[in-house]
Write a structure and sequence with these properties.
The structure is a homodimer of 400-residue chains. Chain A is 40% helix and 18% strand. By secondary structure, chain A is of the alpha/beta class. Chain A is globular and about 60 Å long. Residues 1-5 and 194-204 of chain A have low confidence and may be disordered. The interface between A and B is large, with 44 and 44 residues.
């Protein structure tokens, strides 16, 4: 296997407190302090929030996630390439990670058919027949030009039997090798994205300087998870992810797997727990050595009226807020909490105003990102256990 | 009739070019340069945009409009009073104008019944039976505490016969007197809004320092319009509005009425053309001596994918923008045009992403407000006729 001589990213752990690590992930689009939460920008937009807000002091998101599956179907990779790659297309010049689409096609259920070669499915956009494989996923992600690319994997259901999970793991392992090979070939060829001068000042060949992360599968079976990790690490990646969790299994199962896998993951590479989770989940996973997270909760729940606060979740719909002039979270310093009351947010939500979703999304992302900032500080100052205890306790004091 | 000794607002024309006037409307919430465009914030939010953006250099909206009808039904004036009035409820400390609800209940058509006393209608929110009269509209607007209050009027259809329009005018005139009387009583009583210290630092009795504008009606009949103006001016108001236009009549009819009425309106008070219009409408009305405007076009059309530009309207849906990396308007300096391409905006719109509406709303409001800034500059420098000619010519060069 020919790997690029040097990885386009580097990772360094700068402080450790128990298993919790504070690190720095260096990319050519800037430094990313870990543990880090990545807002989800599925279709090339973090729903309901402007990029200026993502960059603002309130949030200061250093990396966001976009989705290969969604962007491949619409607007299509050729369109994005013609516009100079995903960064230029979106107008975002900080770091981007693209998920491979493996999880999304798996989620289609009856609409997809998995074979050795890849996954055939019908587009949710226009019903057309599509085929996604490790090679296609790598080609699409090279076209998008994200800074971090994910291998194309197969996700086993949370309740998969040992045999089912083993078969899935084997397939994922073969797909990981094919992903690595295709990715390396594409990195050597570094297809020119045809970038023309817009807002970015980076070298043109985005697709020649990407990093690739492997994904550990194995459902709820700890022996298979260990094996998956070994085989993934053997192939060699710039970072390692735990996939197939938070897909309907019991929370205790998730923690068993993370407890088993995280400490064994290569310590000199970033560890990424995909699709997780609530603020308390993030902190619990950090305590087990995880460095990176993505989750739709702050944005999706924001749009349906749920706020995350230091005193637990708050539903703006509740009648008790009708005349409540307090902010969502009295200890939050975000621009929404500085300006707007629960009463006003409830009114916006009840009248179906867009601004409800916009403001709740902003607050929720501010809360998640600020929580991670505080996590990092506490690890660096050796106070993480105290922070963890107090944070979790605070959640149950409930603002409601 | 007892009027407050001094008006809480003052208006001064500082430059005139033909009939076009540049003026300054002074309110205790700051100076408003006229001609001015007021973004519409029907339910206490300008749809799809944060207040921080309305205050930003791109837009710098000095006054926005909210609606008595909508806010009275939901969340209700008692809730808003309990939250310290509309400014505090929304978190907006610049000027606010509230429409009286007359136009909105009139728009309900078959759902409302108009009598001498007022208008009975069914709430579009919960179907409950409601009654709005000059007295109720004044009470509600005192509770909301807007800086400028509108009289409760009756709007005649654009195609009303002379007899119908005369009957409507007579009713509007009687309602104007009742509005004035009730308003003055409320100003004298200055019901305490119960404001408690939040972000605003104004005296507590918001409802004791409001201004009241009268509304000229009369449908398409110029003699009735003149008569309505005379009778409205006789009662005496802090400003005068032309109502009942842009309600389905021919554009030529609208200009006939404005041509007739605007030059006769009291020159030392602001003249407000309600519900108008496109950028070219604003400029044409300014040329006829109008000072104030409100319209839902920039926000509503933004949400459905239509951009207003210096080269005319642009529909982001169009397939021709698929790979177009130009901004919506190449001569626009707003944050959306500085950052995002037509290709990206088209993608957002086609995928139903909230960000499409957010960004188009921002651009459209920036374009409207910047156009009014340029209108004011051109009047002050005596270049308004040239600006008007070039602006209107530019619109037909079409970006499409």
């Amino acid at each position: 296997m020919v790997k690029p001589a040097t990885s386009p990213i580097s990772f360094e752990v700068i402080a450790q407190d128990g298993q919790a690590r504070a690190g720095i992930l260096s990319t050519r689009r800037g430094l990313i302090e870990t543990p880090v939460f990545m807002p989800v920008g599925t279709a090339g937009t973090v729903k309901g929030i402007r990029f200026e807000e993502l960059e603002s002091k309130d949030l200061d998101a250093r990396i966001i996630l976009a989705n290969t599956y969604h962007l491949w179907l619409r607007p299509g990779v050729e369109t994005i390439k013609a516009c100079g790659g995903l960064h230029r297309f979106m107008g975002w010049d900080r770091a981007l990670l693209t998920d491979s689409g493996g999880f999304q096609v798996w989620s289609l259920g009856a609409l997809r058919k998995i074979s050795e070669e890849g996954t055939e499915f019908r587009s949710h956009v226009d019903g057309s027949r599509r085929f996604l494989s490790p090679e296609v996923a790598m080609e699409v992600q090279a076209g998008l030009g994200a800074d971090i690319v994910m291998v194309f994997d197969e996700c086993a259901p949370g309740k998969a039997t040992h045999d089912e999970a083993r078969a899935s793991l084997e397939l994922t392992s073969r797909w990981a090798k094919r992903s690595r090979e295709k990715f390396d070939q594409l990195q050597r060829e570094a297809p020119d994205m045809g970038c023309i001068g817009m807002t970015l000042e980076l070298p043109e060949k985005l697709s020649g300087a990407q990093a690739l992360f492997g994904i550990v599968q194995g459902a709820a079976h700890r022996d298979l998870r260990r094996e998956s990790l070994e085989r993934t690490a053997e192939i060699g990646f710039d970072g390692y992810a735990i996939g197939g969790l938070s897909v309907g299994e019991e929370k205790s199962v998730m923690w068993e797997v993370v407890d088993e896998v995280a400490p064994l993951m290569p310590p000199d590479h970033p560890r990424y727990l995909m699709g997780v989770g609530t603020p308390e989940d993030l902190i619990e996973a950090v305590a087990r050595g995880v460095d990176m997270f993505d989750c739709v909760l702050p944005t999706r729940n924001g749009r349906t009226g749920q706020a995350f606060t230091s005193r637990g979740k708050l539903n703006v719909k509740n009648a008790q807020w009708i005349e409540d002039q307090r902010p969502l979270d009295e200890s939050c310093r975000c621009s929404v909490c500085q300006r707007h009351s629960r009463a006003y947010l409830r009114h916006l939500h009840q009248t179906g105003e867009m601004l409800a979703g916009i403001l709740l999304t902003h607050h929720n992302l501010a809360f998640f990102l600020d929580t991670m900032r505080r996590v990092r500080q506490s690890i660096r100052s050796g106070d993480f256990p105290k922070f963890r205890r107090e944070f979790i306790e605070g959640l149950s004091t409930s603002g409601e």
